[in-house]
Amino acid sequence: MQAEPSTRGAVPDLAYPPRKTGRLAQLARELGKNKHYYILMSPYMIIFFLFTVIPVVFSLALSFFYFNMLEFPRFVGWQNYARLFLNDDVFMMALKNTFMFAVVTGPVSYFACFLFAWIINELSPKVRAVMTLIFYAPSISGNVFFIWLIVFSGDSYGYLNGFLIKYGFMLEPIQWLTNERYILAIVIIVQLWLSLGTSFLAFIAGLQTIDRSLIEAGTVDGIKNRWQELWFITLPSMRPQLMFGAVLQITGAFAVAEISIALAGFPSVNYAAHTVVTHLMDFGTIRFEMGYASAIATVLFGLMIGTNMLTQKLLRKVGD
């Protein structure tokens, strides 16, 4: 019988090196492995892509054109942005008011939501359920903010004017909603009242999911009070809820429009409560300068993205 040739010590054939798995192959394998999840997600992703991603891309492209919905779009380059920041005084006022909303209502509402959620979470289940409903109710009550029109009514029958006149703080009623000294502050107060909603509910849910064994382990490791427990255990354990609440608060703070229009009119007196969104509505739905309105929308989108990125960076430091 002829012996098989020995292969000991043979040099491997380098003419055909082992084929490396490409990224596309890995992606295809991952899609095939989790195809059921992607199938279930596909309706939402298709709707999100059609009604969010594509409009944002089109708006960004349209911001470089002049388009009045009657003529064919005409490319103007950076002209819309130059007009926006150099020649539009009303936009600069709207930008200042929007930053005021974002600085005041965003952080204040965010911390208030978490503080109330943290306190209410310590109550008994029945009381917690009632208090959660009370705090969440304004967010699900539609145009409930119209009750503030009665509170700040400019005649003596308005609740605030009636109270101040009755107890001698003033002799004549104040036109709260037509006086530019008070309009912005009133809209901020109403926005704060309405913003104690979805974020508050998310924080309550996050507090309910914290593993109690982590708190017990923290006590053994040297945590001495509730503030240390909050910083080292509670907040790191609910980072997803904190991020969700931050996105909602940032979006709500930069997108204030309906409340301003309902309380102060459109436009408000001397544009005292004018915001970027109301400016966008002015040029997009009244003047039909769609290219200019797209430039306003792009600036607003950039502000939201930048603020969200900054917030994410800050939230990563929680618990460090």
From TrEMBL:
GO biological process annotations for this chain's record? transmembrane transport
Question: CDD domains recorded for this chain?
Answer: TM_PBP2
| GO annotations of cellular component type | plasma membrane
Q: Which residues form the ABC transmembrane type-1 domain?
A: 95-311
Query: Which SUPFAM superfamilies does the record associate with it?
Result: MetI-like
List, alphabetically, the Pfam families matched: BPD_transp_1
Keywords per UniProt: Cell membrane, Membrane, Sugar transport, Transmembrane, Transmembrane helix, Transport
Which cellular compartments is it found in?
Answer: Cell membrane
Q: What is its main location?
A: membrane
Transmembrane stretches, start-end: 44-67, 99-121, 133-151, 182-205, 242-266, 286-307
- Topology in membrane: Multi-pass membrane protein
Q: Which family does it belong to?
A: Belongs to the binding-protein-dependent transport system permease family.
Q: Which PANTHER family match?
A: ABC TRANSPORTER PERMEASE PROTEIN (PTHR30193), INNER MEMBRANE ABC TRANSPORTER PERMEASE PROTEIN YCJO (PTHR30193:SF37)
Listed name of the protein:
Multiple sugar transport system permease protein
